[in-house]
Amino acid sequence: MTNHVSLEDSVFALKERIKELSCLYRIAELASLPELEPAALLQQALNLVPPAMQYPEHACAHLMVNGVSYYSERFQASTNCLTAGISTQISSLGCLEVFYPDKQNLKFLPEEEKLIDTLAQHISLIMERRSIQENNAKLQEQLRHADRLATIGQLSAGIAHEINEPLSAILGFAQLVLAENPLTDNATADLQKIVNASLHAREVVRKLMLFSRQVPPKMVPVDINKLIEDGFYFLENRCAKQGVQIIRDLDPSVPSVIADPSQMHQVLVNLSVNSMQAMPNGGLIQISTRRIDNDVQICIRDTGEGMNAEVMQRIFIPFFTTKDIDQGTGLGLSVVHGIISAHNASIKVESEPGKGSVFKILMKVNSEESS
Ligand SMILES: Nc1ncnc2c1ncn2[C@@H]1O[C@H](COP(=O)(O)OP(=O)(O)O)[C@@H](O)[C@H]1O
Ligand SMILES: [Mg+2]
Asked: Which of 101, 171, 316, 360 is the most buried (most CB within 10 A)?
């Protein structure tokens, strides 16, 4: 008789073990499907939990990861529950919970407790691996982007240099001839066109040189707040005509940075002009400064038309523009990028079509003030 009972017990234990193992096996299978979306993966992993329990018909489960909850079928919360945390090495992500209905008075086995812990660990590992893969992909993309910009920068530097010399000659000689007397009115008008076209070309060359960092910044301590306070009067008038309001939100305790004031002024103007142009029917430009640890952050935020991901990918590339020919040359942000790189600072953009854009610049605090 005793024998008979223990055989039944072993069969039962074996059946439970098989359920657990097949649950773990299926989770490992899910983890090996890289194309499975995270939400689908978590839901499918969760669906495997109740069948692995001793009373699958009564068990239900809940999984919370990064604030999003997933529920198994027939989910009903109760106080009779097992919980295990989901976490990566650095942060807690959520938890996995299994419930038996209160009124059934069912008990969890110690093996089930272990199983839930193991499942939570598996899910944590899957999430951690996924986030590492995502970060790697993002980093690769940033590297590719930086690399592309560096290559275009070298090309621009070469072109700017080659064009600069003949251009100076064209401009110089045209101006010399203009000064000759007497000239026919026609000749004067034609020469004036040559001068104007050369000046335009020289401006393009200057911007290409700024983009490719051929114009070294003249570094001095700069009070960014003051630069913003002083530098926007002329823009404010233009903005007001278009129904665009500029709001300054400057943190008075922001320390100085080491920068070229005129180049930084150029950055702020280029960014604000873009914001203004993105709001043909009016809106807000908010310029703010903050200290974040050892950096000063400058934010230029607008409530304009925003950009889609495809445009955002290309905005720093010279001559990339979505505007009409008389509205933009596509050099504004290239210049911004060149200047920011030359300052060893960084610039980031976030944008949503129809909502607006924000450009965030981070510059190191002047080390004499950083204490
Ligand atoms: N604040 C902004 N809102 C929406 N789009 C922007 C903004 N800033 C830049 N862009 C996009 O980036 C492109 C490149 O900008 P930029 O280099 O300044 O050249 P341009 O202004 O001459 O077009 C713009 O044509 C526009 O599509
Ligand atoms: Mg522009």
From this structure: 316
